[in-house]
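ESCALATION

Customer reports they have been waiting on this structure for their group meeting. Please prioritize. Original submission:
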Amino acid sequence: MEGKNVGAYETLNEVLVNLFRDITDIEQKAIITSEYRELTNNDMHVIEAIGIEEPKNMSTIAKKLSVTVGTLTISMNSLVKKGYVVRRRSEEDRRVVFISLSEKGRNAYFHHKRFHEQMIQGAIDGLTEEELSALVKALTKLNSWFRSFEKDY
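Update from on-call: job pushed to the front of the queue and completed.
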């Protein structure tokens, strides 16, 4: 951090470490209500990746989540059993399986979406346009760094 504000570095380090450590716990408490107590945070992220648009195949969902199809299959089996996800074979090619959300799954999707909307609103409340632009730029750079770092490991 040559030439950079050491105090800002230390503050940013503390904020990021705490944020990364706490965000999963906070999200878990906020979205896994009594109605969704049978779901895990991971289940909610799979539901989010399936989405509410057209049905998707397993490899599309796995790629979006950065997991293998094998890993995703374990979660998918559980979500199908719990009634959140529906599997349907393609009429054109019976080997292809399409995944979509059931009504119960769509309700969970919107519940999770509301949490994310509240989280973003909480993050940007009171920011000027300039501050918001700087925040988006900084977080985009941080995300790019993590993505490039991930490829090395």
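Sent to customer with the following note: DSSP finds six helices and three strands in the chain.
Escalation resolved.
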